[in-house]
Amino acid sequence: MGRHSEALRRLGRPVTRGREEILRILEESPLPLSSRDLRERFPDPKPDAATVYRNLALLSSLGLVRTVALHERSRRYEAAEGENHRHRVVCRSCGRIEAFPARKCDLSRVEEDIRRRFGFTVTDHSLEFFGDCPECRRKGNKG
Amino acid sequence: MGRHSEALRRLGRPVTRGREEILRILEESPLPLSSRDLRERFPDPKPDAATVYRNLALLSSLGLVRTVALHERSRRYEAAEGENHRHRVVCRSCGRIEAFPARKCDLSRVEEDIRRRFGFTVTDHSLEFFGDCPECRRKGNKG
DNA sequence: CTAAGTGCAAAAAATTTGCACCCGG
DNA sequence: CCGGGTGCAAATTTTTTGCACTTAG
C-alpha cells in the first residue's frame, strides 16, 4: 500500500499484486528492464507473460511507466517518476547500459522549435548515447 | 555504380543488387524504414526477408546503415550519411514521424562528461521527441 | 455482485538460422 | 573456380489475443 497502490487507486484502477510488483521492481531497478527481466524478478508465483504485458500497457497508458527504446530486439520499461527522466549510454559491443540523471538537459528550445515547425506538442523525449565501454575497448571488441 | 557500390567495394564486400538497392532506397527515404517497408520498395523480384536482414546487418557493421529505435515493435533503418544525423518527432497517437536535421546539436559536452564518469567512448547518439501531431490533437486522440 | 484481471493456449509478428544452390570477382 | 550471397523452410523470440475462471471493490 505504498504510493504505488495509491496512484493506481487514484486513477480508478484495481490494485493487484502484479501491478504493485511491477511498479516496485521498476522503481528499484537502476536500469530499464525488458518484460522478461521483469517477470524473472517477480517473487514466486510468477505471473504469466501475457499479464505482464497487459499490465505494462496499462501502466504506460496511465503514465506510471515509460517504455525505453534501445537498439535491441525487445522493449524495455522504466518507472516514470515525475519529470526526472534519465539518459543512457549503451555499449555497442556487450550491451552494457549505464543510466544517469538528465541534469540540466535543456531541450526546451528544441521542443519549442518543433512546435513551431511541425505543430507537434512535445510531451517527452529520449536521448541515448552509444559507444564502447572501457572493458570492451580494452579487449578490442570493436564491433 | 554510384558511391554505394564504391563504398562496398572499398570495404572489400561483393556488390550485389540487394545491397545497392537497400542503400539507394534508404538514401531516398526521408524517414527511417523497417525491414518490411524496405522490402516492399524493392522493384520486383523482391528479395527474401532473410536476405534483407542479413544485408542490413552487414551494412550496419560496415557503418553504411544505422538502426533507429523508435518505440515500435520493429526496428527501423536509415542511411548513415557521414556525421549529419537527424533527430525525430514521433506522434504517440498515429505514429507519424517527422525528421529534421540535427542542427546545432551540441551534446559534445555531455559526451565528454560521459567519458569522464563512465569511461565510455561515445560514438553516436540518438534523440527522439514524442508528442501529439496537430491532426491527432484536433481529433482529440489523447491516447 | 460485477467489472476487471489472470492464466493458459494459441496466434501473430519480427528476426534468425540451416542448408542447398548460385553468382561476383 | 570459390568464398560469399541468396532463397526457402523452419525455428526462435517477442508480443498479442481469445476464452474460461478468479478477484478487487
> What is the 3D form of chain A?
globular
Query: Greatest interface and its residue counts?
Result: A-B, 37 and 37 residues
CATH architecture of the largest domain in chain A: Orthogonal Bundle
Query: In the CATH scheme, what's the topology name of the largest domain in chain A?
Result: Arc Repressor Mutant, subunit A
Note the run of SSEs of chain A as H and E.
Answer: HHEHHEEEEHEH
Total E-strand runs of chain A: 6
List the helices and strands and how they pair.
2 copies of one chain form a homodimer.
Chain A: H1 3-10, H2 17-28, E1 33-34, H3 35-41, H4 49-61, E2 65-68, E3 76-79, E4 86-91, E5 97-101, H5 108-118, E6 121-132, H6 134-139
Parallel strand pairs in A: 4-6
Antiparallel strand pairs in A: 1-3, 2-3, 4-5
Helix pairs in contact in A: 3-4
Chain A binds a DNA duplex (25 and 25 nucleotides) through residues 13-16, 18-19, 34-36, 47-51, 53-55, 73-75.
Task: Describe the overall structure.
Two copies of one chain form a homodimer. Chain A is an alpha+beta fold. Chain A folds into two domains: 1-82, Orthogonal Bundle (Arc Repressor Mutant, subunit A); 84-143, Ferric-uptake regulator, C-terminal dimerisarion domain (Dna Ligase, domain 1). Chain A has six helices and six strands. Chain A has helices at 3-10, 17-28, 35-41, 49-61, 108-118, 134-139, and strands spanning 33-34, 65-68, 76-79, 86-91, 97-101, 121-132. In chain A, the strands form two sheets. A three-stranded antiparallel sheet of chain A has the order 1-3-2. A three-stranded mixed sheet of chain A has the order 5-4-6. In chain A, strand 4 and strand 5 (97-101) form a beta hairpin. In chain A, helix 3 (35-41) packs across helix 4 (49-61). The radius of gyration of chain A is 17 Å and the shape is globular. Chain A starts with a helix and ends with a helix. Chain A binds chain B through residues 61, 67, 69-72, 75, 87, 89, 91-92, 98, 100, 107, 110-111, 114, 117-134, 137, 143, and chain B through 61, 67, 69-72, 75, 87, 89, 91-92, 98, 100, 107, 110-111, 114, 117-134, 137, 143. The structure holds a DNA duplex (25 and 25 nucleotides).
